[in-house]
Design brief:
With 380 residues, the protein is of the alpha/beta class. The protein has nine helices and 16 strands. It binds zinc ion.
Length: 380
């Protein structure tokens, strides 16, 4: 067998250590949580002479930090920030037994986002080991917990960690530099009616029927309104009515119906604004529904200036002439909200994320590592 490159070997090691987000497993499942992967990262850092630091985020869940100091006192800071958790596992745990086959490395987290952990870690450790390193830029590897559920790790870092001049958030972007993504607002709408016997529906008010009209207004009128808006990197905002619940059985007129809505927002759109425009639309059509809060903190959109010198430098290292937008959100927005301009970059393709045969191309993994190393060595 051919010798494996460091990033490939590290990715195999990382996948073999399960770090499923606890939200996707029953309490107490030994495969849940990021603690073991964080310890593995800390250990690699220690061996390379980088003192690891942990940041307690939630019980048993800690961000791991590796600092690589410049030769002179630091005047800048660049963060490499992949998340350590993964989504859940299919019934058979084959995804915890990674394998390389035909230029692909299979396993849970291979592309989302342990591939980025391996690439970023390998790049930092390569710079730490030998060769040119930045004169006055501190490099910070930041392994984050909980991206796949509530982004607790990046929110915590944004509130308590040191700001940087740039954060490169690790997600599979096919080695494109991403400066924009949509935000996400989840909302619940409720219609109220009056119960009655199913034999005398005229004596009641059917909340399901009322909601049917609301759903239709959202999926047609509101969607058409959203399609008229457009962002150069992101296209139009979207709406999806993803769940509906109302009534109990056929012979009772339902007195309540609830829908859950996923509204992807453009930079400049806010949750309050979304609520206002839905309220306005329903009122204009003579419909009545009230809001419930489904999730406390919406994910904000990301919009980072592609002209920032460090963003342009990353583009040059990656051989890209322009930045792009994506339709998913990640840790970049919380970090940007905390005051660190953030982009998303990493090997692999989001199309393979969360799938039951998740994989990453080993060529992409190695090229991503080389790009990051080149970028880090070129920092001021
Ligand atoms: Zn991810």
């Amino acid at each position: 067998m051919a010798a494996r490159s460091l990033p490939v070997q590290r990715l195999l090691d990382l996948i073999a250590i399960p770090s499923v987000n606890p939200a996707f497993l029953p309490a107490g499942d030994p495969r849940a949580g990021e603690a073991q992967v964080a310890a593995f990262v800390a250990d690699l850092g220690k061996k390379a002479g980088l003192a690891p630091e942990f940041q307690a985020v939630a019980p048993g869940r800690r961000n791991v930090l590796l600092h690589l100091s410049p030769a002179a006192p630091a005047r800048h800071r660049v963060l490499l920030a992949p998340h350590l958790d993964t989504v859940g596992l299919p019934a058979l745990d084959t995804l915890l037994h990674p394998r390389v086959q035909g230029g692909r490395l299979y396993g849970r987290g291979a592309c989302d986002t342990k591939g980025c952990v391996a690439a970023m870690l390998s790049a930092v450790l390569a710079v730490a080991a030998k060769g040119p390193r930045p004169a006055e830029t501190e490099i910070l590897f930041l392994g984050l917990v909980d991206e796949e559920n509530g982004q607790l790790g990046s929110r915590h870092y944004a509130a308590h960690g040191e700001r940087g001049d740039l954060a490169i958030v690790g997600e599979p972007t096919r080695l494109e530099v991403i400066t924009a993504h949509k935000g996400d607002v989840w909302l619940q709408l409720k219609t109220s009616g009056r119960s009655a016997h199913g034999a005398t529906p005229q004596l009641g008010r059917n909340a399901v029927h009322a909601m049917a009209r609301v759903v239709d207004a959202l999926e047609t009128d509101y969607r058409a309104e959203l399609n008229r808006r457009s962002h150069p990197l992101l296209g139009s905002p979207t709406i999806n009515v993803g769940a509906i619940a109302g009534g109990t059985q056929p012979n009772i007129v339902p007195n309540e119906c609830v829908i859950s809505i996923d509204r992807r927002t453009l930079p400049g759109e806010s949750e309050a604004g979304v609520r206002r425009e839905i309220t306005r639309l329903l009122r204009a059509k003579g419909l009545k529904a009230t809001f419930d809060n489904l999730r406390l903190s919406p994910c904000h959109p990301l919009e980072t200036d592609p002209g920032l010198p460090l963003v342009r430098q990353l583009c040059r290292a990656a051989g890209r002439t322009r930045t792009r937008g994506v339709h998913y959100f990640c840790d970049a927005a919380p970090l940007a909200e905390g005051g660190t301009p953030s982009v998303v970059f990493g090997p692999g393709d989001i199309a393979q994320a969360h799938t039951s045969d998740e994989w990453i191309s080993t060529a992409s993994l190695e090229r991503g590592t080389a790009i990051l190393e080149k970028f880090l060595r070129g920092l001021p």
